[in-house]
Amino acid sequence: AGSKLREVFDKINNLLSGKPVQTEGQMVSVTQHPQGLEFVCYKLAEKFVRHGEGEVSFHRDSAFPIAVVLSGIWELHPRVGDIFLAHLHKKCPYSVPFYPARKEGTSMEEYQRMLGYEVHDSKVEEQDHFLKRMSGMIRLYAAIIQLRWPYGNKQGAHPHGLSYGWRWLAQMLNLEPLADVTAMLLLDFLEVCGNALMKQYGIQFWKTMFFIQKSYIPRIEAVTSSGQMGCLSRLKNFVQKCLQAEEIPLPKGILTPSFWRT
Questions:
Q1: Cα–Cα distance between 161 and 232 in angstroms, integer?
Q2: Does Cytoplasm show up as a keyword for this record (predicted)?
């Protein structure tokens, strides 16, 4: 509910503003320790990224309520946003976007960690689980760049707005595609913020969609084996439908004005 989200936002904002906040039966304040504020910014940013790789990867619509709170906090407390990006880029290098290359002397285990895989006791997580986590984080990022906290002053610019999404898309399309990962990330990104990018960039956006259909999808196909076609097929269908309709649908779960009255 919108009222519940406001409570969550106010509590986080009060904590970061140095006001005493009640949690688990006791009052806490960042002023109780010289590094209190820095610690809270770090842990909070880390927690938002965890929401992306956990909550959002399983419940895709949850990207929007989480993102709108972070967007508002980022506006008032830029340090949280900076640290959030650092955590996000480390956990999901594709959010830069960046495909790390394996350097000489780097062990396979270390390289897999650089690519975003979780490695425990030399065991690498399964591909499906890895893709799900990356998908959740990209969806959260794509939601953040288009949302403003509705109760802010809205005087200044969004601290990390749509221009960053436009840049992400352009840089992504300049990278050589990877099997599995590239098709999934592009589809996630376009599903979540394609509508907002279309409204903002108009004809330039549609030129990009044509480029994806005519040039980039064939390049993804060239590196994709027959067993990895699922996501690529979904991306193909999505782009084709949007170009035919000359419209990108609003993402599922977007927060409507009526949500804030709940």
A1: 28
A2: yes
Helices 36-51 and 2-16: crossing angle in degrees, nearest 10, is 150
Q: Residue 168 — left, alpha, or beta (φ > 0 → left; ψ -120 to 50 → alpha)?
A: alpha
Q: What is the CATH number of the domain that holds 246?
A: 1.25.40.510
The per-residue pLDDT for 153 is: 72
Q: How far is CA 165 from CA 50, 115, 216, in A?
A: 21, 21, 18
C-alpha pair distances (Å), 239 with each of 51, 144, 169, 211, 247: 28, 22, 14, 10, 10
Residue type, 104: E
Phi, psi (rounded to 5 degrees) for 65: -60, -40
Split into its structural domains, the chain has a count of 1
Cβ(147)–Cβ(196) below 8 Å? no
The tokens of 108 are what?
A: 């396979």
Q: Which residue range forms the structural domain that includes residue 152? A: 1-261
pLDDT one-digit tens code per residue, 154-196: 677 889 999 999 999 999 999 999 888 999 999 999 999 999 9
**32-38 contacts at long range (C-beta below 8 A, 24 or more positions apart):** 38/79
How many Å separate Cα 175 from the centre of its chain? Answer: 19
pTM of structure: 0.93
